[in-house]
Amino acid sequence: MATSLVLDASSQAPLHRQLYEALRASIVAGRLSPGTRLLSTRALAEQLDLSRNTVMNAYTQLLAEGYLVGQLGSGTYVARELPERRPAQRALIRPPSKGASPPPISKRGTTMAAAHAGLSATLGLIQSGMAFRLGTPSVDAFPSELWGRLLHRRWQRSWREVLSHQDPRGYLPLRQALADYLATSRGVRCGPEQVLIVNGSQQAISMVAQVLLDPGDAVWVEDPGYIVAQGVLKAAGATLVHVPVDEEGLNVEAAIRLSPNARLATVTPSSQFPLGITLSHRRRLELLQWAERSNAWVFEDDYDSEYRYVGRPLACLQGLTPDARVLYTGTFSKVLTPNLRLGYLVVPEALVETFVAARIFSDFQSAPLEQAVLTDFITEGHFSRHVRRMRTLYAERQALLVEEARRELAGLIDIGPADTGMHLLGWLPPEMDDRTAAERAAAAGISAPPLSAFRGQSSGRGALLLGYAAVPERDISEGVRRLAQALR
Description:
Blueprint: H1 15-29, H2 41-48, H3 52-65, E1 68-71, E2 75-78, H4 107-127, H5 144-163, H6 172-186, E3 195-198, H7 201-212, E4 218-223, H8 227-235, E5 239-246, E6 249-250, H9 252-258, E7 264-267, H10 281-294, E8 297-301, E9 326-331, E10 343-346, H11 352-362, H12 368-379, H13 382-408, E11 423-427, H14 434-443, E12 463-467, H15 473-487
Parallel strand pairs: 4-5, 4-7, 7-8, 8-9
Antiparallel strand pairs: 1-2, 3-10, 5-6, 9-10, 11-12
């Protein structure tokens, strides 16, 4: 395998980046055919006279993008279906053949299948291509060597504790560390007993739906908004009430007119997805007052609040007033890596026992070893340093994307900087359909999903969502040029 991998020690490009590109080119060209087993990271590092971390970083990037797949205890293989060859609008659930009786499934199963069918085209566009994939942190900047040392140390010192039975709420030192961090950085009012460790924000919203909603209950959702969370709510039998978002965020007055007796409101107040708007203080108070008055709840998804480039991160909804009727969630998928399936859910004291029961009946607990390593990562200060580094890196990548877009995409896309987040909106001319533009971009190997795919009842000017956090600088420049060619 190594004979086709030519690296240039004099190049300014990092060696892990060169190795990634060489492997990707061999896979795309077919020199490494689907299903081929790659050398182990140690063996390839010895062949190429590289550090093992260099090889691991390249493999990690290819795994995250779908060019490689790992099989536990077997090795790493070239994916049998590459990202470039995936149809953008493929349904993952095959329709039954003609004459075949449909399998007997529940109403909830039917609802889930229908919700997924509506997501498949958009998810295909998000996953295709390299630039400008959405909602993904920089895997190449993940502190893999440090994480490996912490992992090894934890295993050496406390493997018995790690393998023993754990509290379904999660590893107590991690919950304590999170309660302290959230209090100082986000203004969250909670103790460790109110923190539940979950497998990401999707599990958090799923548990909230199970505990707080009955089939048919109305739920306010932002429009445009996060369609994956909306799919979870649909699967739980909720009735979605699409509430318009304006320059102040979720329009609470409009929501009350549409459905005053809703049981739940789901919001992304720190950086509204996908528009990036911050919910105004006035709207925040209106939302909390409505929840108190209506005996309803607010689900606050603080998915990327760490990435605010102007001023300090804003205080969260949950901490604005004592005893706020708010359930607060965050995830490490946007800060560290999507494959670290760890997040947290902060619940009011009165609901702790009920949510612990829901956690037990869900999957009991998250991976204890990862929880223990994450605890060390936070308490030893690595997490705060990593966030500061990523904030600087992402601000630089955002600025480059704006600069390149203004030079190469003038007249095709209107784009400007944002104070928060990991993506920018590229606004299209009024006469250009954003779904058509997204499909053209996907055909050119560019991931740029359309804003209209995240709309429910609302309408408006079309735009493309351009993620920059996971895209190295040279790929931003190349991606902009390819996107310009596709749109022209």
